[in-house]
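agent> call fold_tool(seq_1)
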Amino acid sequence: MLARIEGWEGAFLALIQARARAPLHWGTHDCCLFAADVVLAVTGVDLGTPFRGRYKTPRGALGALRRFAGGGVAAAAEKIAERYAIREIPPLMARRGDVGLLPAVAAPGSGFDGALGVCVGATWAVAGTCGLDHVPLAAALRAWRIG
């Protein structure tokens, strides 16, 4: 079970601001590692360890996801949630710092079954090509309470 650490709000806001205009970069700032970075800032626990330094391309990311969970983004999120006893919640109940599974934003046929976003209030923030993209909370397929 993850718990939010003291001062998480400041760390959360600083990370969101730092990544607001950061372009997507596979293996360091993509949807999965952005979500993991936020969870790290909020809880002090790095859920991205199985993926860091393991890929540099979309194809490499898909391979890392398959090796880890046998599937895509959704399977990896489920495995991590189970491993850390992270409770699933209705997406509309998300609060700042929670993680959501959003419909795939990659090109059709890319192999990605979804994207991870982080609740920043009324929207999910997700790593996009030119910075963080914002998606309405209602667009999420699933969500998990972080701390």
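agent> call fold_tool(seq_2)
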Amino acid sequence: MAESKYSRYLVAKPVYETGPGEVKGRQNPAMTLISNTLVPGCNMYIAGGWIWGMPEPNPHILEHSHDLNEIVLHIGSDPKNPEDLGGQVEFVVGGEPLSFDKTSALFIPAGVKHGPLTWKKFSKPHIEMSIMIGAASQSIPVGSRANK
């Protein structure tokens, strides 16, 4: 079978290049699913990973900002109750704490400080994912223990 002209856009194996340092209870480093390294010219960055226990240290993602808009997803793993996150999270955005325990998406405008990201409760595994559109650099460090 001939290779599709679109096969260069398929990332079938993520790379493991970014993470918040040594953290227990979560996939680390995260899976980079899309970047300019993986799909040259896409100008997007998507990374995600499983949270399978109460992260330690907690918080492990401290206050930082990016030069790009960011979307942060927290996705529950229960197919019978997909809105149940499986934990309670507090995410400080622009100095204001947001608390949630449901599958959620959060838009963070470029330049807005966000973090710390703190798990208040954990009951079952869930996924955390970050999306940045317009990310022309090869990789974007997602949620580091160092302030930016």
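agent> summarizing second result for user.
Residues 15-55+68-87+101-111+123-133 form one domain. The chain has no helices and ten strands.
agent> awaiting next instruction.
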